[in-house]
């Protein structure tokens, strides 16, 4: 027979359901009432790409929200009514700060006064490529110091399965308070996709798994006040694994299509045309696209949280490692394409001027974390090229000990470079001008789709 957990029902629902029989903890019922009438005071710890949009959603739902961050500059800017996250309009922040619904602080004593806290701090990899849990532990330590009866704690940072119950729960229960009775603990992965005009925090379904049914119920109830779909699951480990499955799925499929791209190059086949035609199949195929490598705070990192955890149980996550390997080689492949482009015109990498278009890790965002453009630029510099960049979202860049400035894409500027690399396909780039004026182009994103110019070397 299938284990009880595997049979647990997962429901997606819009409407609030009353707390169920096992959830009759009086503290849960009291918190539920405060959530319903908006008297519950909320805190969001970590006000970045994930935490700030969430804090704004809750504040717009009518809650009083304290945003807590250790970055004093971010706190100061928010208190001045200014947003530093592109997807969060400054006008929204200003209105909420003025009305008193949103307040930013670096003082964790604020937690004494709150009924629910969402933790959205970074989860990077260490130098050894193991999970770096220091930010989560620091934030959870602060929550534990101020934990009190009736409080709901939700971890949203992406992490390995088991974190909530193995790492956070013991810290909180050290206070003598009991989970499910005195306080409530859940994990809910954030799925926000910066720069996506269609899906935002509010309309992306929210998966929630509590340590006990009462924990799940109050966490679900909180999110339902503002988010359109909430998907309860049986336990935190399921919710933690959901996020890692999603991001591993992307990493592995990107790895596969990158390998197909390398294969097509060898076979003299246009991979972009292949994908476009394959994507006409109405079932059983989902297009992924090759590129210069993985970037951002999620896809290059999260799968290694899973492989680390699997390894600790004696399980080797082969797909993750293989995809990481292939994806990790793509920046070097792009540099080889630059060499091919220059070589075709009798030039060497050493001494050539190369302009990289786009240093943000994906189109139309300003996030350069883990961006493959930086690896490409560094390898080109190591091989003796003179490198500059252009990115309307990243006006200045600290690179190789120098402060570079984004170059305007004028005809004169484009002509000055022996090779232009399209690394990130921002919509605002003047592609027609690039095509007319660049001496040679490496297009890693098929941004010049349709052009047959012999200037272009495609991935
Ligand atoms: N960026 C994304 O698109 C995205 C999407 C889904 C999930 N996530 C996950 O969400 C988490 C947060 O990511 P992010 O992109 O928002 O990170 P971020 O770097 O943009 O923001 C994190 C914020 O936390 C603050 N911080 C760090 N330590 C702190 C502490 N001890 N107390 C209070 N504040 C602290 C930082 O100053 C920063 O402002 C990560 O686990 C990430 O993997 C990110």
Task: Provide a descriptive summary of the structure in words.
The structure is a single chain. The protein has helices at 26-36, 51-60, 72-79, 90-99, 134-145, 163-173, 213-224, 236-267, 271-278, 302-312, 318-343, 372-382, 411-415, 431-437; strands spanning 41-45, 64-68, 102-105, 116-119, 152-155, 184-187, 206-210, 230-233, 353-357, 386-390, 396-399, 402-405, 419-422, 441-443, 456-458. It has 14 helices and 15 strands. 47% of the residues are buried. Helix 1 runs parallel beside helix 7 and helix 8 (236-267) crosses helix 10. With 459 residues, it is an alpha/beta fold. It is elongated. The strands form 3 sheets. The chain has an 8-stranded mixed beta sheet with strand order 3-2-1-4-5-6-7-8, sandwiched between helices. It has a 5-stranded parallel beta sheet with strand order 10-9-13-14-15, covered by helices on one side. Residues 45-51, 68-71, 74, 120-123, 135, 138-139, 157-158, 190-192, 194, 297-298 line the site of nicotinamide-adenine-dinucleotide.
């Amino acid at each position: 027979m299938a284990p009880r957990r595997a049979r647990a029902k997962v429901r997606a629902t819009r409407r609030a359901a009353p707390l169920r029989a096992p959830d009759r903890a009086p503290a849960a019922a009291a918190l539920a009432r405060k959530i319903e009438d908006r008297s519950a005071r909320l805190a969001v710890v970590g006000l970045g790409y994930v935490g700030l949009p969430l804090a704004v959603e809750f504040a717009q739902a009518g809650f009083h929200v304290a945003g807590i961050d250790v970055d004093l500059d971010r706190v100061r800017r928010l208190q001045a009514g200014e947003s530093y996250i592109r997807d969060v309009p400054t006008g929204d922040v200003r209105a909420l700060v003025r009305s008193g619904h949103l307040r930013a602080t670096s003082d964790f004593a604020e937690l004494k006064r709150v009924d629910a806290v969402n933790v959205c701090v970074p989860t990077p990899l260490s130098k050894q490529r193991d999970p770096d849990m220091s930010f989560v532990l620091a934030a959870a330590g602060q929550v534990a110091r101020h934990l009190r009866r009736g409080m709901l704690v939700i971890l949203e940072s992406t992490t390995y399965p088991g974190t909530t119950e193995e790492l956070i729960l013991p810290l909180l229960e050290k206070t003598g308070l009991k989970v499910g009775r005195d306080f409530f603990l859940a994990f809910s992965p954030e799925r926000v996709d910066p720069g996506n005009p269609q899906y935002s925090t509010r309309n992306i379904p929210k998966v929630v798994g509590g340590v006990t049914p009462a924990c799940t119920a109050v966490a679900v109830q909180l999110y339902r006040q503002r988010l359109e779909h909430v998907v309860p699951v049986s336990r935190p480990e399921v919710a933690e694994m959901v996020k890692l499955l999603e991001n591993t799925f992307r990493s592995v499929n990107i790895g596969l299509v990158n390998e197909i791209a390398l294969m097509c190059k060898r076979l003299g086949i246009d991979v972009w045309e292949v994908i476009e035609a394959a994507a006409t199949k109405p079932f059983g195929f989902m297009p992924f696209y090759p590129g210069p490598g993985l970037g951002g705070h999620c896809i290059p990192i999260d799968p290694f949280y899973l492989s680390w955890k699997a390894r600790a149980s004696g399980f080797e996550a082969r797909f993750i490692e293989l995809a990481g390997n292939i994806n990790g080689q793509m920046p070097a492949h792009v540099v080889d394409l630059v060499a091919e482009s220059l070589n075709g015109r009798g030039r060497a990498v050493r001494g050539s001027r190369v302009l990289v278009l786009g240093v943000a890790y994906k189109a139309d965002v300003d996030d350069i974390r883990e961006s493959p453009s930086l690896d490409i630029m560094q390898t080109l510099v190591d091989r003796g090229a003179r490198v500059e960049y252009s990115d309307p979202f990243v006006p200045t860049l600290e690179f190789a000990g120098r402060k570079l400035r984004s170059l305007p894409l004028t005809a004169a500027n484009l002509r000055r470079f022996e090779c232009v690399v399209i690394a990130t396909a921002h919509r605002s780039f003047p592609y027609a001008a690039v095509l007319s004026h660049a001496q040679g182009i490496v297009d890693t994103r098929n941004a010049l789709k349709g052009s047959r110019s012999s200037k272009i070397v495609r991935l």
